[in-house]
Design brief:
3 helices; six-stranded antiparallel β-sheet; single chain; Thiol Ester Dehydrase, Chain A; disordered N terminus; alpha+beta; 6 strands
């Protein structure tokens, strides 16, 4: 996840600006607003071109699903690590974003990922849990499972949390 400004091909402008995962993926657009205890629990269908291409679907901010398609299989015949890494990053981001105030912004610091097994078909599910959070850092743990229950990926990530910069006049 980046803290970069949105591009013209960014999220749908008619989308709900308070959607936790939408704001996690594109935080530079939203102006500062009064603090809030937590975000709503619903999640988006897709946030941007990457989530749309990958086919990421949110059950809630902590749970993301993806159907494996031929475009996500690498030349070695395995599910691309890029696809699962992106899935983890977006799921961690939306998990933390649901726990931030409207005037806070987040950015990925690092993610350590362990590829345990792979899958070449079916649906995979990423679940993330907020391990701890303070004023400036959030730590998450994620796992990805195949639809048959096999553990495919584990990950630990850290994210920075900061106050939004005031909008330019």
């Amino acid at each position: 996840m980046s803290d970069a400004p949105a591009t013209p091909s960014g999220p749908d402008p008619s989308a709900d600006p308070d959607d936790p995962a939408l704001r996690a993926a594109d935080t530079a657009i939203a102006p500062p607003s009064p603090p809030e205890v937590s975000r709503p629990a619903e999640g988006p269908r897709s946030l941007d071109g990457i989530t749309s291409f990958l086919g990421l679907r949110w059950d809630d901010p902590q749970t993301v699903r993806m159907q494996i398609r031929p475009e996500l299989i690498n030349r070695g015949g395995l599910l691309s690590g890029v696809a699962t890494y992106a899935m983890v990053d977006y799921c961690m981001g939306s998990t933390l974003w649901a726990q931030t105030a409207k005037d806070e912004r987040i950015a990925t610091i690092s993610i350590s990922i362990n590829y345990i097994q792979t899958a070449i078909e079916g649906e995979i599910v990423c679940r993330t849990e907020l391990d701890r959070r303070n004023r400036t850092i959030g730590i998450m743990k994620s796992s990805i499972h195949a639809e048959d229950g096999r553990l495919l990926v584990t990950a630990v990530g850290s994210y920075s949390i900061r106050k939004a910069k005031p909008a330019p006049l």
